[in-house]
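User: Hi! Is it possible to get a structure for several chains at once, not just one? Here's what I have:
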Amino acid sequence: MILCLDAGNSSLKLVTYADGSVLERQQWHYSADSSALQNWLQTIVAKVQVILGSCVANADTQAFIEAIVNEPIHWATSTSECSGVVNAYAQPENLGVDRWLTLLASHCALQQPTLTIDHGTALTFDWLTAAGQHLGGWITPGERLMRNSLNTATSRVRTGLENNAENATLAPAVNTQAGVSLGIYAALTGAVRQAINTSEQCFGTRRFAIVETGPTSLCQPLSYDADYYYKKDLVTLGLLLWGQSQDLLDLTDIEISRLFNWKE
Ligand SMILES: Nc1ncnc2c1ncn2[C@@H]1O[C@H](COP(=O)(O)OP(=O)(O)O)[C@@H](O)[C@H]1O
Ligand SMILES: CC(C)(COP(=O)(O)O)[C@@H](O)C(=O)NCCC(=O)O
Ligand SMILES: [K+]
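Assistant: Yes, the chains can be modeled jointly so their relative placement is included. Here is the combined structure:
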């Protein structure tokens, strides 16, 4: 069994894999108690052969994760090239490793011009050619971060943190709560719309793929010609490819096709 850890800025996502399939998923928000996570780790640790990790959270969080896992973790890093993908950054290690891993996964599965979108603490966009050349990307605050900014930097906006813009019509709102929800929803989907327009320009075609990850989809309500894939575990899928490239794993062709044959 392989254990993959995706430590974002808000939560740790854990996925176990065997025979090219997901066995289990767990999530721990850093603000919550970690005892349920620790109990779960105890039940699987004897069965785990290798642990791979992606971390964009701070060093204290990473050290805490290492302490509770209490087994060696192979932490991935962003490099100039891996698994056929070439990093656009002049200083490749500065690209968030979660972004880098989503690119490895998208390229392995699709090998077509791809816009990758990851909505977590931040909302990130990355462009990738069919040949695996990363063109760069954008970073913008995610939903919760936008809400927190309004709540902390204004004196009269105090809205709950629940996302109630799911059925948004983007009509003008007549109270603060709805104004914030719809305004943020418009900002996020507006950024997605701009990214789709940019994709058409940088790829020179409307025939590209959008790969999205995160708790909910921002793309689905929009209209576009691109092929669309929503993948829950994009970062951990990328971790498997990174582990394979480092000879930490030996995935078979059958396992790779199970994990990355998205077109079926
Ligand atoms: N139950 C929850 N507790 C705390 N934060 C949550 C919860 N559900 C969603 N969020 C918020 O949703 C956003 C996305 O979360 P997540 O996918 O965990 O981000 P990341 O991948 O950056 O860690 C974050 O801003 C996070 O604070
Ligand atoms: C952009 C991010 C903050 C996204 O983090 P997340 O929302 O997944 O917690 C992270 O990928 C990061 O810290 N990147 C480093 C800066 C960069 O990618 O240019
Ligand atoms: K993100």
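The domain at 112-230 is CATH 3.30.420.40 (Nucleotidyltransferase; domain 5). The chain is about 35% helix and 25% strand.

User: Great, thank you!
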